[in-house]
User: Fold these one by one.
Assistant:
Number 1:
Amino acid sequence: MPPSGPSSSLCLRVPSGYKYAGSQLRLRLRPVNSTSRSQTTSRSRSNTDSLRPSRAFTGAQTFNPLRPPQPHWHQTRVYQTSPTSCPTSSTSFVPSCSSSTRPSPSSSSRSPFTRSPIYQHHNQPRPIWLSGIMATATQTRAHAGHSHNHHDNVYLTSQNKNDAGVRITRIGLFSNLGMAIAKFIGGYVFNSQSMIADAWHSMTDLASDVLTLATVSFSLRPPTDKYPSGFGKVESLGSLGVSGMLLAGGIFMGMSSLESLYAHFLLDPAAAHELLHHGHSHSHSHGAMGPSIHAAWLAAGTVLVKEWLYHATMKVAKERKSAVLASNAIHHRVDSWTGIVTLFVILGANFLKDATWLDPVGGLLISFLVIKGGWGNTVSSLYELADRTIDDEVKRSVRRQVMKSLETVTEGSQVELRDVSGIKSGQNYLVDLELAVPGGWTVDDSREVESAVRTLVGGKVRGVRRVRVRFVPKDAADEISKFDEFIPGSVSPQSSPEPEDDHTIVIQSDLHVVSEAKVDFDADFGAQYGLKKGVLVNEAEGEVFAPVAMWLEAIDLVLSRLKEKNAPLNRVRGISGACQQHGSVFWNHEAERLLGGMKEAAGLKAHLEGALSYSYGPNWQDHSTQKQCDEFDAALGSKMRLAEVTGSAAHHRFTGPQIMRLRKKLPEMYANTARISLVSSWLASVLLGAIAPLDISDVTGMNLWDIQTNSWNKDLLELCAGGPSGVEALVSKLGQPRQDGGGSMGSISPYFVQKYGFSPECQVAPFTGDNPGTILALPLRPMDAIVSLGTSTTFLMITPKYKPDPAYHFMNHPCTPGQYMFMLCYKNGGLAREKIRDSLPAASGEDKWANFNKAVLETPPLDVKDESSDRAKLGLYFYLPEIVPNIKAGTWRYTCNAKDGSDLKETTESSSDKWPVEKDARVIVESQALSMRLRSQNLVHKDATTHPDLPAQPRRIYLVGGGSLNPAIARVIGDVIGGAEGVYKLDVGGNACALGGAYKALWASERGEGETFDELIGKRWKEEGAIEKVDVGYKSGAFERYGGVLGAFGEMEEGILKVAHN
């Protein structure tokens, strides 16, 4: 059975001459060079085009099936706020994020932007924020802006859409109403308790008729974007309701009849009279006189009417194969049977002596029939809801019509019908066909076949409402399973930390999303700029960078897509952002004038490309600055001293070493540079229409800012600028950072007001880096940690203690003075895990991540089953030069004593203790977690109040990014690092930094006097629904076992660092 779960449909537009040979494409294809008959009826392709014979469509977008979609999106997400929490006069802001937490399985890059929240204004006091992000991802985007509508949004077989079912149900409804009234009057006049009881039964039948009428009418509605398969399942639900009434009525009738028989035959007359009187106290008694014989005529008339309704309703039900009509027909038959019982009771009372037992005996027989009919229809309805395949009779009819249609098509004899399947949805049949065509056929050839098949099947097979055709190459070497489109059901998330998509996010004061849009850098700009994973690479020098012009185009594109989605941009009241840290943009002396003169007619690229002294922005993966890093580390005497001053030792990606290298390499460019922005302040500048200052948190990722004195460090500026004489010019280029992370830097540029409809009152707040944005995604408490699992891996904590060390980073909190962000950043995160995943032996077609997870979970901690004999396994798996520790690319494996970490030994190919590759799956995850525990152990302490019996460890660990979805990784992180209250997945997927940026915007505009970020967001943030516990965290025994080898792990790193330093 194929795995269950949400299903999706894709429509790929390909060149009309595209051939099937060798590609085994099994998606529905549309030619790109056809002409639509109507380009104005719909802006997007209808999701019901398989419901009618197709028309051609417009557009010319080529598609290369051999080149998979690449990462880098810019997506916009919109959140909503409470109606009373933000006054209309206040100013709010939201972040534009970069992708530090982006899951891209094969991507090693992180794009330059993160999310930009935007705060919106409208007539009611409901502010909104928009958050934008640019990062890497591996997904396909929709054809935004192109018309793909081939067909009217109607069902295939309009000739089947008669109202027979509705009409017969209405007749039954009015008949029941009329008969109920007649039985009440007749029962009273003719002194028949049975007839009065039957009148009450007829009244309950009205509920069944109303339910049937509602579901039959609703199920005939045409499909919509929200319900692409139509509303046929509503009829199945209605059938369950009617069948439930039958079952309940049958059971009640049977119990009542048994009670009456028990009283009649087993109790004395007085007790029987009391029991029967109590059981039928609702009857209208006229004394001891029996019913009049004239009541029999009325009973016989109701039997005839109900029998006619049964046959008429069942005829329509069989024609239309409607379960709910069949249930209602059975209900009519039950009423007919009860009418017969009533008739015999009346006749028996008039012609037989003591015939009261006839009523319960007849009722008991009828109850069995009612339960049987109700159960049968219940099972049938449940099968329909479970999407059981269509019956063989319908399949045979479809096959006949397909074969007939192929006779009418040129070269139809070359087409093979491989499979007919489908599901029943109420009265509708949703049919799937698999046709095998020659590999040399083009999409146009297949479209002719598809149209002919859909027309004839829809017109001749009653009830068929949709025909979907899948084409496969006739001469394919391997048999293609019809279930190959299903994703394996086993858990197999990507383990990368960069988010699957990048967002521009809009929120309201209650933190709810309103709208979103996205851009995929490679898919949208890859061919234009020659990108790979969203960046350009100069391997010879270790340079990794991206075109700034592409970023400008991406801003326009994502806002256009947001506008197309009717996001209320006119109500946006503020914008902020969180962008890729450390990256830089170099402005020339024309920048201020060009930023202030942007007009709606031209795009941002046309306006601002001339404002740059350097056309590229260095990317965080750049590793071209080792020489400069060595000089920075030595400038203040040691790495430790540099970390004490700036919060970090020198790193390749940090902005200070990057500026120093570019100054030497491109002196003319540097001389022509008027201002240098970080990516966060660059994006803020574009939106502001003026150069924005650096952010107080982001500036601490440059190796130039003295955190303790809160100023530029003179010695480091001299080093970067080439001597004391260049310091003044460098300070002028950098400007002074903005100390306040909130507030407004000014109104949004008129360009965005005129082109996208932003409010002129929309304010721009300070933007920050992606990692600081991530810690703002929830109100962190002391001792909480965030682990971002993606292409890189990041460990974040908030602390009031400034304890710098060359092994990690300390940065200013983006919103709270006196608080610091502790950060570990590893290049070899998701990419390294993927390399191990791909190296594991697996059966053909087996899901790789499921195989990886199995290997992780089946291996005990450190692969130690017996401490007395087994040695603990440790390793470093660096497929890229690592940041922490600063070691070259390579793989190292070691073993040590499992109890205390002693006797550390390297394992080589010839070693006796060499382990199989399957063990690497757990060892790599453990090694990444051990490194985080080793470097954060001085920041955690024993919680004597809440958890006095537990060792020092984080209170909670929050996972974000693609790897947060992987239960095996979550389990190992809990084993190694602990988590006194557990390990949680922050339910924002890979968009934590976008969400944090949005929250920053909200705080910036709505904060009260002295109100901190955590105080404001903490009041509004609801834990339920925002986080999910994925592991218990601390496990006694396992946590201590890892603690025993922590020293050996550090010793291993130090030894490797001596021989493989970058």
Note: The chain has a mean pLDDT of 77.
Number 2:
Amino acid sequence: MREYYRYKFHVRPNIFNPILYGGRLFQQFAVDTYIKIESSRLDFIWNHQKEIRADLYQGLLDSIHAGQDRGDAVGKQTVLSSSFIGGPRDKMRRYLDAMALVRKYGKPDIFLTMTCNPNWEEITNELEVGQTPQDRPDLVFRVFRAKLEEMKKELLEKHMLGKVKAYTYVVEFQKRGLPHAHFLLIMTGKYKLTCPEQYDRLISAELPNKQKYPELYKMVIKHMMHGPCGTLNRNCACTKNRKSCKNYYPRPFNATTIQGKDSYPLYRRRDDGHNEIVRGHKLDNRWVVPYNPYLLQMFNCHINVEVCSSIKAVKYLYKYIYKGHDRASVCVNGTSEKEDIDEIRQYRDARWVTPPEALWRIYGFELSKTNPPVMQLQLHLPNMHMVSYHGKKEITEVINREGVEKSMLTAYFEANKIHEKARSILYRNFPEHYTWQTQGKFWQQRKRKTLYQVGRIVSAHPAEGERYYLRVLLNHVKGTTCYEDLRTVDGQILPSFREAAERRGLIEADNTLDDCLTEAELFRMPSLLRRLFATILVFCEPHDIRALWNNHIEAMSEDYRRNCKNAKMVEQMVLINIREMLQSMGKDIRSFPLPEINEQNDTKDNTPREITEEANIEVDPEDMELPKHLNDEQKAAYNEILTAIDRDEGGLFFVDGPGGTGKTFLYRALLATVRGQGKIALATATSGVAASIMPGGRTAHSRFKIPLRIDDGAICSFTKQSGTAKLLQTASLIIWDEASMTKRQAIEALDKSMRDIMDIPNLPFGGKTVVFGGDFRQVLPVVRKGTRSQIVDASLRRSELWNCMRHMKLVRNMRAQNDPWFAEYLLRIGNGSEETNDKGEIRLPKNICIPRTMDDSGLDRLIDSVYQMNSACLEDPNYITSRAILSTRNDCVDRINLKMIERFQGEEMVYHSFDSVEDDPHNYYPPEFLNTLTPNGLPPHMLKLKINCPIILLRNIDPANGLCNGTRLVVRGFQKNAIDAEIVLGQHYGTRVFLPRIPLCPSDDEMFPFRFKRKQFPVRLSFAMTINKAQGQTIPNVGIYLPEPVFSHGQLYVALSRATTTKNIKILTAENDDEDEDNKHDNKIEPSEKNKKRKKKEDKKRHVR
């Protein structure tokens, strides 16, 4: 039927076709024709439900509904198979295919929408006299498809927007009939868009220059102006029944492009006075829809180009899968009534088909495409795969047929038996290396590596039980040769896939927290066990706290029972100790269902916990001797600050000095002197690493309760009656190190709060003595995808408080005093006075550079130069903490850490996180996709550890006892649910701690379209760390890995200035196109005035030439 109507609708020269001259009748005929074709297919499906349902329940199709394999849970069910284009299973399958690409290649970078222009010349030139484009839907859809193919050539072959690694697109039809296409492009690493400057090179949201680009100007006015809507036109579709435009037009003016708070940037829209009359109203840059000038001028139609960098766009592409397909399949109240589910009727009801869509489908053109192609891999329990046979065949004949027992999954098991290479490949990655042969039902190794295919195991919902847990195992376990291998853990064959997944740590067991405490009991450290119990109460969301208490009170009280035989008294002692630990974590024991503490046993006074903790900080005798060893610059600052404290006159000070000039040395001397006088001195820093170096150091955010998301006008989140407020009122000195890398809004928030609690609104910080320290040559505040002006605006120097500070400069480099040339070299880089070439690159000394290579051998040499892999060195915590490899990006750091842990000797443990999305009952985000996400500040899904390996803490767990974000530790032991670690840096050096898995959520800056939760140990390996994380500490032996130029102010300076001498520093930089040149690298430091003038003169000469 389809071929017949294609023939009838075809245009033939010199042959009159009355159908094409029917106007509205042609439109009606086209729609009726497609409905007939579709209805015949739907009728076939209706009459063959037994076959379709059998196919579905064998586990070969994606599961749309939770628990749909339970036939007794629903009444009569009529389903649409995934082969029916546009049905619910088809859309779910395509959505999951798109998510498979995101899992493999990362989040999309560009979201492009192309809409048909009915006035294209190719359409209007073919119209007969008196015809309009809507009279010829055949021309409209044919020309749009031709333009779409040309667009694909521009994007995918000519790489107009950059080289595309993977893409997916879908064609949709508006209610008014015009087709449009949505593209999602995932770019290769080199072409990924990471900053506003790159956005501006591809995308414009402004009216172009009318005199310079007259044709482009006309097209922008015609195709890319939104509205007018809102108050200018209440009848506009985007404003109907609303107070304002649902698309947020008019957008605000912006002098520069900035990263917005949602998925899309706020593009540059300058208030330049340009406007144009559009549909009777004056519209300016605020009404321009973002576009690419080249593509707009080439295709002359509405082409919206957006930087998305979010998986939210994938969800948008297949938005219709969320509507109505599963509304009757979930029974919540347990009623015995059974409802009929008729997906065919649901699909037909209120179906809207336009003439271009009808013709598009009649001609069988693609409605969507994903590339690389995605192969759906079968998933079924043992002996439950699909078997196709003729209805009249004898059952015994079917069972005995050759190959009837084979499926993709069983053939995967067989391939693992035969091919050694196959045993190192996960089932989902098999199509990348092997091709599926349908004739013989076996996997054959790929001969042509240029062909590529992504695998995806068909989905399963957790409510499906064993099939879901089988899928979890297949996503993590390699080299299995049968189902029993998947159920075998530590040599024991377990009865179910669920138990095997639990035992492997791939899913969270119901008794995980109980097991965590039980495992920790093996170390026989009751005090650490009590602290672990307190940590679990605060961070791990336990369901049955009283059961945990009853099960482990005996082990937690073992040390108390040695000296006291009274069980009640022992219990009270344990409760009081746990209360103190909870208080140090900012919690009250009364908020947990634990036994009450008797008043007669309670020796607690009314002094706030915060004051008690600070008063109990012991002053190291060696620190009391530090004032004697201060140099002249340090001594002058020390005396001036102490004078302000002694006279109680207050004041703000800023200690400014390059890295290595002894700022931390000065802080320690001040802290020891003030504390030695019995006064309270608070030591804080912007980063956890810098805070851990100072005695009693805390991160400023945790000490002052500064909100994580902070804007102008914010205040700290403590009340005037709180312990924190009383501590600040009592403190004689407050030190805030690395203030140069914190946002000024955080410092201003503390200022506002302290003026309030001190009741002195006219003096900065309520008249307290506050010492800030930092170096503006180093890394400035992090503004996610911010411009240079935004980063500068966020710095302390742009605050009104800056002019209230007394500035003290430290110049003499104490860290590199044995290498004066290195100290001068660092200062030149920091000041921007080091000679640069035309590209702004500096020349690195040859003796610190490792030769570049095309493979990993250069990185291996860098690792060898920093770490010696012998057991004597690796067991020494001082050796581990005295060296590190620094890099700019987290992915580079993760790569080095993985290399290092593979080389590291010792017993290994691999911990998998438990990832979930809150409010996702339909399982739209597959677990294997969530596993690939590693947001900033969260541990990886797969955490590989070995005894004595270095780790860094990622959360403030117990800052008062040394467990704050940035604390460096060494692993001393581990169980499946607990890690035994030792603090190896700072005041709490040598302290042993137990760490449990805790639920972690990324910051709002990650802009996920869902609430992501990862339950994992809050640590990362720290053989390597980011340059930003290392700021503030001395690292005697440094390796620097720069596969690409530094991208932020001060990064190169910070990396180099961590070391003490050129002998202890090695750098591996990106490969340079000019192999004859020495190692060069971007500096990203504002050049000095001298260099600016020189460069200006050179530019002028080049211009004259």
Note: The CA atoms of residues 514 and 547 lie 9 Å apart.
Number 3:
Amino acid sequence: MAAGESALSGNRRNWELLVFYTFIIIGVLGMLSGVQGLSKDGQVLLDFRSEVTDEANVLIDWKASDSDPCSWSGVTCDKRGNVIALNVSSLEDNFAGSISRSLGNLTKLEILDLSKNNLKGSVPSSLSSCVGLKILDLSSNKLGGTIPVELGDLPKLSLLNLASNRLEGHVPEELGQLSALSRLDLSKNDLQGLVPTELSNCAKLEYLDLSNNNLSGAIPPSLSRCSKLETLFLGSNSLRGDIPATLGSLTRLQMLSFSNNELTGAIPAELGNCSEIEFLDLSDNDLRGSVPRELGKLRKLRVLWLQDNMMWGSIPSTLVNCRVLADIDFSRNNLTGIIPLEFSEMKSLVSVVVAENLLVGEIPRSLSELGNLTTLNLARNKLNGTIPGGLCSSSRLSTLVLSHNLLEGEIPVDLAQCSSLLQLRIPSNRLSGSIPKGFGWLKKLQFLDLGYNDLTGVIPTDLGSSSSLIELDLAGNLLNGTIPPGFGQFPPLLKLNLSSNSLTGGIPSGIVNSPTLITLDLSRNALSGPVLVNVATTVPMESLILHHNQLLGNIPTELGFFQQLTELNLGQNILNGSIPSNLGKLLNLRALTLKRNSLTGTIPAQLGNLMFLEELDLSENHLSGSIPSSFNNILSLTRLNVSYNNLTGVLPHRLVSILQESPSSFIGNPGLCLTANLDCVSPEERRDHDDLSAGAVASIIIACVFAAIVFSVLVVISRSYYRRGKSRYPEKEAESENEFRIFNGESFSLNDVLKSTRNFDDAYAICKSRNCTIYKAELPTGKVIAVKKLVFRRDDLAEEVFSTEAETVGKIKHRNLVQLVGFCRWQGLRFLMYEHLPEGSLSDVLHRHKQEAPNFFFDWKARFRVALGMARALAYLHHDCTPKIIHRDVRSANVLLDTNFEPQISDFGLSKLIDSTTISTPANATPKVAVTYGFIAPEFAYTNNITEKIDVYSYGVILLELLTGRRAMDPELPENVGIVAWARQFISSSTNPESILAADVYDNCDARGKSQMLLVMKVASYCTNHQDTNRPTMKEVVQMMEQFDRSSSSSVNASRRASSGPAAFMPTTSSSAVVEYSDSDTDSLFLDVDPYTTDDDYATADDRSMGSFTHSRSGSLH
């Protein structure tokens, strides 16, 4: 019994101990769970937070003491507490830092959205461990590096968005393994390489955006296998080749953009099968051919952008079937024909832009029936007729641009009542009549440009009180009367151009002091009175242009407070007094012109403070004293003209280089000396001379000879050193022996070129000259190119510079420039590859065809088209390229013609290529590019002065060739007499100056053509002016030629003085020349003017009607 009780007592004790230890264990576990309560996923998120900055404490509720992260901001969990979504996209202040690799440990993660932050670093490859991931959005950050190939291992991924980062490298082909992928956006990065064909394996893909990268190669035709594709954006890359016709099978496609690439070929008609497409953008490529009629099958199309291509043909009338089409842009192509009348049936049209094409005919009046139209831009075509009324009948029209056409008649009155109008631009037409009243009352009108028409009457006073106008341009008309006093007093007017009219009276007191005006141009009028300046507040004006008026009095000293001025031109007025020293406070000034006034006194030394000054013209005044030595501080000064004053003393050394480039800029100052060691003789002792002293000239010659000797020695030494260095490193030569680069989507190889020319065999040479040989290469694709072999020694070339410059030239595109297809280096030689034009050169057509094709007739219309196209091309090179390109060898043999006899200038940039690849070429060294005698500007022969004006001179010579049919150096002319000298002599001695023109051409012209030929002869005289600074710019030439093209149909004639014969080319020593024009006397359009006119005189010759041309001259520039 006792034993039993003892056993029972022992069991009870054991049981009590078991219960005791059980409670202890439970307590310990409870304590442990309190210490390590945060789940594993929570720890991962804390690791993420530790690598980002959260200054706004957006993640303040992410606490380590929590048992799980399911209640944290941006976190979503499943029922088991696993994190399945992390979305911290743009939470208040954006996060910075990097993406933690530990996020790959969130094994149940389905959604990761870290978009719109400032995250840097790379995309973690560890994310591939999140095998359940469906959405990965890291867009709009600053992530770099490459796209991890491991992302291709995410089998459930349906959305991948890495757009707007800084990712580099290739698009991984492994992404083609994402069988569930429906949306892929890698746009706006720095990705390179090809578009992977493997992406076509993504059968569920609906959205693909690879735009705004650096992708190259062709568009994979296999993308057509992505049959569910609705959006395809590949724009803003460097893709080449044709648009695959197979894409026409994408019947679900709604959005398609291949813009801003280098695609070639025609638009596939098969795209008309994409019946669901709403947005089609193929702009800014090199697409050729016509607009497919099949696009009319796209019944849901709303936007059609084809601008900036090379397409031709007419606008298809089938587009009328696109009933919801709202936005059309066909601008900057070569489209011909008329504006389809069917447009009026497209009631949903909102914007129609067909600018810069070759459209003809009238603007359909039925366009006024388009009730939704807000934008109509038909600029730079060949449209004629009148501007139809009613375009704003719906009161929705906001933008109307019809500039640079052949439109006639008056401005519709209802346009001045169009309350919705935001901008109206109709300059450079033939519009007549007065400006309708009411434009100044339009509350929304901000831009009004009516310039360069034939508008008459006065400026409506309501324009002076407009409360909305930002820019107003009425330049180049026949307006008279005074300037309305309200101009400048009503903000927000920023730009006002009333130049080249016949305005009289004074300048309104408030206009110069406007608190908002930035640009004011009142030049070329008959304004009188003083320049009234009363600076009460800060004046923001940057450009003040008042030249060619009759302004009196002193130059206001208050102009020194116009701190923002970059251009001040008060030239050719009647201003007197001295030059205010306050002008030295205009520290932003880049151009200052005070020429042809009656200014006295000395040149203020304070002008030396203008550190950004590039052009200064003080010529033809009565200034005395010396040129301040402070001018040595103006390092930016490139053009200075102080001719025809009374200046004396030593020329500041900084100006010697300008003297060497343009000696005529200093003539008429006999007291000027080059150095202090020479005698500065008085004007009385040198009154029979108009040039620098003999000692000065001798100094210049000695300096030039010395420089030439030093240069020769340096060249010999450098070449010897270069040869020794080259022989020492033959292996480096072999590494860079060959190079091949093509542009604009062309697809051929160096081997193709070598095979098609048999390694540049002479049998394939079509032209040889002293500095190049040209080969004709017919490629396997059937394309024919011209390959120019440049002839110069290898040791004259810097390899990298040549390649860089060639690539730069290859990017230059203009319809009147021969396109550089590519370049290559092969066996130490340099080759440039161009488009081949079948009609040969202008020289061939003008001269060689006379014998080879006696029945061929090159009429004046074709010749004028050549002249105008050349002018536009040269103006583009001079004024629209940065830096500007000077051709240096403009000649008829370098002007090639296409099948429509449209000119294309070749060899542009060639001089830059050669000059930039020479070793240590001095600035004053003779250029290596061979120029052609007869086309060379005079200053080029004796000063090597390289400015764009040498191209202008050469252009003038070609005009003479077109006009007379003679060569620049014609064998029928006296020995060593060029066409320019012959023309001047012929006209000065002939009683029938028109006989200088090619008889067969002139006799086959109508009245308009004959008038046009005589007008172009004037342009030739301007361009071949002996003094380079007195020639027009090519931009001015284009304006004159375009005006001739528009207005030469009107009878334009000149009455000349009986005392002298026609003298367009004849120098004259008269102090002034006055020519008046009338609508009679049809036999004399050559002007009795000094050919040495200045740049500003060209626009004075009002070539639209040849109104009246008067200029004053004191002294001769012989």
Note: The radius of gyration is 37 Å.
